[in-house]
Amino acid sequence: MRRRNFLAFSALALASPARAFNAANFKPIPTQFLAALGEPKAKSGTGAEKWGLWTLDPGPRGVRLEKYNDLLASGVAPAKWSFDPKVWWLEEHGLIMEQPSPSVPAGRYVVTGDRAVETVLTIFPKDAKGEQRWELADGATLYDVTHLRCRAARYTASQGSTACTPGMVDPARFPVPPGEKMPLVKGCDAQDHAVLFIVGVEA
Fold first, then answer.
1. 93, 162, 187, 200: which has the fewest Cβ within 10 Å?
2. Is 137 exposed, middle or buried (0-12, 13-18, 19+ CB in 10 A)?
3. 26-36 and 188-202 as β-strands: parallel, antiparallel, unpaired?
């Protein structure tokens, strides 16, 4: 993940035609990290209840693959997060990450991929089935606000598999080039997530 603590609304961003929303309605926050699922060209969709949120950059809080046995033995990372051997995450440098919070509160957020586009993401309240819609403003797509250098994947055991652990990951597959999928791991299902930066919330 990008080692970044804060992104303010700059004068350049305020003048950018790629951000048409009224910045006065939002307040900047220390950068948070959103793990999103959806088609890159999608401008809206459902399934936001399956997204995840890291309020702190999970990269520096991660554990190197060669330290996996220590992590498994203790069950707790040096950064004090708990490890679940049934569901685990990797980032683009091969660090084992803590799991994101399993849901994103409904609301309006300023999001960016730290490229050309900064816009508003609306996460709607859950409906009667527990599903959440999401929508990007300004005609932006999920790809537009994805930080391509950040890669994140959730690993779980494939059906019929008896083993799926970070110990089976090939360290030579890292770092993962920007935009490429995270490595497959024998016996595991990998679910790649787009990573968005949340840099503001509705005031």
1. 162
2. middle
3. antiparallel
